[in-house]
Amino acid sequence: MTENQNQPREYDVVLGDASQVPLAAAVLGGIPGVKSRLASPIVEVKIAALSEALKYGDAGLDFIIGALQDESIAVKFAAYSLLKDRDEPNLKQQLQKYLPIFDFDVITVDASGKENGRRRHYAHFLPEDLGNGIVVEMVYIPGGTFMMGSPATEERREEGESPQHQVTVPAFYAGKYPITQAQWQAVMGNNPSYFKGEKRPVETVSWEDAVKFCAKLSQQTGKKYRLLSEAEWEYACRAGTTTPFHFGETITSDLVNHNGSSPYANAPKGLNRRKTIDVGSFPPNAFGLYDMHGNVWEWCSDEWYENYNGTPTDGSSWEPGTDNIRLLRGGSWSYCAVFCRSAFRLRYWAVLKGWRWGFRVAVASVSPSS
Questions:
Q1: pTM of the model
Q2: How far apart are CA 298 and CA 290, in angstroms?
Q3: 277-332 confidence digits (pLDDT tens)
Q4: Distances from the Cα of 262 to the Cα of 137, 255, 340, angstroms
Q5: By three-state DSSP, how is residue 114 classified?
């Protein structure tokens, strides 16, 4: 190829989302063009190439299937979106092999608790088989930046939710549900819960109990399971929202297992079930996580601290406080709606148990392509 700087070269530009083609640049099209762009380190270029690959029949389809093994979750999802409505049995097998996905509705409500939005989402998960049909589903939480804490305008906020600050959380995997009694039994060999039920969240567990569960699960699986940090928990709960709840301005007993006799904002009074219920009984948030509000309080890894002054901004657990007092998030079946807010923080002795305390697990050091 000529060295003349005015002579276009085949790799000077790629077809895709670019709105303009640079002057004096050639475009490499067809299957060779798709192949070269899929080798690009730029995620947007790969995604654009996948859309073009559909034009080229079986050859293009092979490239889309191959993208299910890409290191980028965004590229995997792009390939999934192009394949999910096709009926070929081999495609269904490939989807489940390389990118297990579940679909769900995300619901939002106004300040009166009336539904004002519903949209279809999907999320990637990794199943952890504990034997005897017991599986822990770990949902991929994409990394991102959010404002942690509550704004000064949030109704009935507390000083411990200040100052609101920006935190960047790396990608990780979080439990689709709080740990259930069946999952606890499979790992620990007992069931301490007061409200019995295999699919109900395990409760009457201390922070120390939850840490022991994570250690034993890690030993059993070879992965590093742990509690979520407080920053990870709030980021995962909000799932891109900035309202008091991931559902919107309020919650109702039709959406959350809490003490509905004391509502939030303009929501009507609702049920007080006075017990835990099966996990997953209500709609999830936009990340595909269930029961982030209500059912049981969830232990976080951090020590208790009075406010966010000096807290880390990288999503990590903070350990500057009192070792024997730890943090819980999310509210429970017996607490009023205000305590179920995304930003609300509760402290409790690490060694004490309660039939309102449960937990959710995270996986550390797991890459999206693993």
A1: 0.84
A2: 12
A3: 999 999 999 999 999 999 999 999 999 999 999 999 999 999 876 679 999 999 99
A4: 33, 15, 12
A5: coil
